[in-house]
Amino acid sequence: AKAVPGTSLQFPPEGFERGSGQVLDAEQGLRAGVSKDEFVLFYQPKVDAANGALLGFEALVRWDRPGLGRIAPSDFIPAAERTGLIGPLGRLILAQACQQIARWRAEHGEAFPVAVNVSPLQLIDTQFPQLVADTLAQHRVPPALLTLEITESAAVTHLEQARDQIRQMRELGVRVALDDFGTGFSSLNLLRSLPVSTVKIDRSLIEPLPAPDAAAVIKAICQLAAVLQLDVVAEGVETDAQAQAARHAGCQVLQGALYAPPLTVDDAGAWLARA
Ligand code: C2E
Ligand code: CA
Ligand code: CA
Ligand code: CA
C-alpha cells in the first residue's frame, strides 16, 4: 500500500483489491476532476426555530463535470472514499468553505458559520486536525465559524479515534456536529461519550412528524441534548407541521426544503444580504 499524500492514510486500504475497470475509471475521472477543481459547494441555510432568522449554512458538494452535468455527492463520494481521493477532495472542500466564510465575513461585517461534511476517512486521518488548523489560519477564519459534521456511523465504527480527533478539533475552537443522528443503534450513549457540540437529527426521524410517537422520540433526544449542553439541529424539514413539531420538541435550529434547498454561492449571498 502507498501513503496518500498529506494524510496518514494508505491506499489501497488494507484488504482492498484493485483491478476492477470500473474502480479505475472512477479513479481517473475523479483524479482529473480534483486536479481541475471541478467541485463546487452549495450552501443550505440553517434557521433559528424560534424566529426563522438565518444562523448559517451547510456546505454540500457537487461535481460539475464538463459534458456530464452536475453530479450529486452520493454518486462520487463513495468512489472517492474507495480510491483514497477523498483526502485531496476533502482538502479542496475545506479550503473552499473557509475561503467563503472569510469572503462573507468581509462583505457583510457579520459572521455566518458554515458546516462542512467530513468523511469517515478524514475523521480517522491523524493529520486532519492539523489540516483544519492550517486551513483556518490560511484564510484567517475564526475557528468558531466552522462546524465539522461527522456521521454517527463513522463515530461508532472508529469510536476511540473519533473521540480523540473530535477532542483535538474542539481544542482548536471548531464546532463538531454528530450528523445523521438516530440512524444508528448506540445513539444515546454515543452522545454522552463524544465531545461534540451539536446533534443533527436525521431526516428519517423528522419526516414522520407531527406524528406523536415521532415527536416523543425527538423530544427525548432534545432533553438528553439539553442535559449534555448540546445544540440540536433538525434536518430535512419540508413542511410547516414538521417545523412546528420539531420546534415544540426542542430543536433550536431547522434546515430543509421548507426554508431553502442547497443554494448557489450567489443565492446564499442574497440570503445573507437580507439577514
Ligand atoms: P447529509 O449531510 O445528511 O446532507 C443532507 C442531504 O439532504 C443533502 O443532500 C441535502 O441536499 C438534502 N436535503 C436538504 N434538505 C432536504 C429536505 O428538506 N428534503 C430532502 N428530501 N432532502 C433534503 P446532498 O446534497 O445530495 O448530500 C447527500 C450526502 O452527501 C450528505 O448527506 C453527505 O453525507 C454527503 N456530502 C455532501 N457534501 C459533502 C462533502 O462536502 N463532503 C463529504 N464527505 N460528504 C458530503
Ligand atoms: Ca451533513
Ligand atoms: Ca445530515
Ligand atoms: Ca441525513
Indicate the mean pLDDT: 92
Low-confidence stretches: 15-19
Helix content: 40-55%
Total number of helices: 12
Largest sheet: 8 strands, mixed, barrel
Number of strands: 11
Q: Which class best fits the helix and strand makeup?
A: alpha/beta
The coarse overall form would be globular
Task: Give the SSE map.
Blueprint: E1 2-3, E2 10-11, H1 21-35, E3 39-48, E4 54-65, E5 69-71, H2 77-83, H3 86-108, E6 114-118, H4 120-123, H5 128-138, E7 146-151, H6 152-157, H7 159-172, E8 175-181, H8 187-193, E9 198-201, H9 203-206, H10 212-227, E10 231-234, H11 240-249, E11 253-254, H12 265-274
Helix pairs in contact: 1-2, 3-5, 5-7, 10-11
Bound molecules: ligand C2E and calcium ion (CA) (3 copies).
What characteristics describe this protein?
275 residues; Bifunctional diguanylate cyclase/phosphodiesterase; eight-stranded mixed barrel; 11 strands; binds ligand C2E; two-stranded antiparallel ribbon; binds calcium ion; single chain
Q: What features would you describe in this structure?
A:
The protein is of the alpha/beta class and 275 residues long. Helices cover 46% and strands 21% of the residues. The protein is built from 12 helices and 11 strands. The chain has helices at residues 21-35, 77-83, 86-108, 120-123, 128-138, 152-157, 159-172, 187-193, 203-206, 212-227, 240-249, 265-274, and strands spanning 2-3, 10-11, 39-48, 54-65, 69-71, 114-118, 146-151, 175-181, 198-201, 231-234, 253-254. The strands form 2 sheets. The protein has an 8-stranded mixed beta barrel with strand order 3-4-6-7-8-9-10-11, surrounded by 5 helices. A two-stranded antiparallel ribbon has the order 1-2. α1 crosses α2 (77-83), α3 (86-108) runs parallel beside α5 (128-138) and α5 (128-138) runs parallel beside α7. The termini are far apart. The chain binds ligand C2E and calcium ion (3 copies). Residues 23-275 form the EAL domain. This is Bifunctional diguanylate cyclase/phosphodiesterase.
